[in-house]
Write a structure and sequence with these properties.
The chain is of the alpha+beta class. The chain has a single domain, classed as 2-Layer Sandwich (Alpha-Beta Plaits), CATH 3.30.70.20. It has 3 helices and 5 strands. The protein has helices spanning about 20-25, 55-60, 80-90; strands at about 5-10, 30, 45, 65-70, 75-80. A 3-stranded antiparallel sheet has the order 1-4-5. Strands 2-3 form a two-stranded antiparallel sheet. A hairpin with a 5-residue loop joins strand 4 (about 65-70) and strand 5. Mean pLDDT is about 85; it is low at about 80-90.
């Protein structure tokens, strides 16, 4: 069963390293053409094909990406807390 995902990126904290763009197999993240207040060109969500795999969240060195996925019960579940624990163990 394919799960629908939603990506939220804190563009003011993102430094635009592009790692999330590289790992997203669906191409749901791009680098913005507009800079943030710090002068970086941050990543931003693009398209609606996100599966909620959260690879972008896992690889983000600044922890600025949150991924939510439809848990099948009509609500959304967040991967943020579980993935924060995984990042510390990597």
């Amino acid at each position: 069963m394919k799960m629908a995902g939603k990506i939220i990126i804190d563009t003011e904290r993102c430094k635009g390293c592009g790692l999330c763009v590289t790992v997203c197999q669906k191409g749901c993240i791009i680098i913005s053409k507009h800079s943030n207040k710090s002068g970086y060109f941050p990543a931003e969500p693009a398209g609606s094909d996100c599966t909620g795999c959260a690879m972008c969240t896992i690889i983000c060195p600044d922890a600025v990406i949150e991924v939510y996925r439809d848990d099948g019960t009509g609500g959304e579940s967040s991967n943020k807390s579980n993935l924060s624990l995984n990042k510390g163990k990597a």
